[in-house]
Amino acid sequence: MRPVYMISGGITKFTKAEPQKSFRVMCKEAFDYAMHDCPKLTRERIDGSVLSYFSDHFTRQLMAGIMAVDMCGLVPKPSIRVEGGGSTGGLCFQEAWRHIASGWMDCVVAMGFETMSHVNTWKGNEFIALASDTNFDYPVGGFYSGYYAMMVVRHMHEFGTTVEQLAKVSVKNHKNALHNKWAQHHYDLTVEDVRRSPMVAYPLTMLDICTMSDGAAVAILASEEVAEKFCDNPVRVLGVGQGTDAMRLSDRPHGSVILLKHEDPSWYKNLKYPGVHSFRAGRAASKLAYEQSGIEDPREEIDFVELHDAYTSSEIQTYEDMGLCKYGDGGKFIEQGHPELSGRIPVNPSGGLIACGHPVGATGLMQAVFAFWQLQGAIAKHNDGNASFQVKQQRGIGRRKMRGAIHSHAGTGTYVTVSILESTR
Amino acid sequence: MAKTNSSKKSSKEAGSAKHGGGPKPVYGKVRLPETDEGATVFCTDPLTIKSHYDIDYIHSYAEDSPFFRGLAEGKLRGSECPKCGYRFATPRAYCMECGAKTAWFDLPLTGRVHTWTTCYFGSEAFLKETPFNLALIEFDGVNTLFLSRLIGATEKDIRVGMPVKAKFRRLAQFKPTDVYFVPAEKP
Question: Which has the closest alpha carbon to B140: B114, B104, B174?
Answer without folding.
Answer: B114
